[in-house]
Each structure stands twice: as structure tokens, then as C-alpha cells.
Write a sequence for this structure.
């Protein structure tokens, strides 16, 4: 059985950066959309939910090669 490589420091930093970017873009996009239509809180929380789902998906795809 072949041993899989351990993630490097760059891999771990890129996972964290991508997750933060997903959440930040989701919240920012939700706030922007909410201010355009007049319901900031609902759209911001919806953007947060979308950003969190995207962060989980990106993190899974990145660490899948190390599992």
C-alpha cells in the first residue's frame, strides 16, 4: 500500500485562504444584494450559508487527495 503525502504548509494555508474567501465573498455578496433590494439581514445570512457551503466543498476537494 502506497503512503500518501502529507499536506505542506502551503497546502494548509491555501485551504484556509480559500475557505475565508468563500465565506467573505458570500457575506459580502449577500449584503450587497440585500442593500439593493432592501432586506440586508436575510440576504446577508443567506450569503453566509452559501459561503459556508462553498467553503466546505472547496476544503473537501482540496484535502481529498490526502485522505
Amino acid at each position: 500500500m502506497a503512503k500518501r503525502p502529507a499536506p505542506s504548509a502551503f497546502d494548509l494555508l491555501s485551504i484556509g485562504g480559500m475557505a475565508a474567501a468563500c465565506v467573505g465573498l458570500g457575506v459580502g455578496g449577500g449584503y450587497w444584494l440585500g442593500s439593493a433590494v432592501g432586506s440586508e439581514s436575510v440576504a446577508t445570512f443567506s450569503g453566509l450559508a452559501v459561503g459556508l457551503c462553498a467553503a466546505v466543498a472547496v476544503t473537501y476537494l482540496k484535502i481529498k487527495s490526502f485522505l
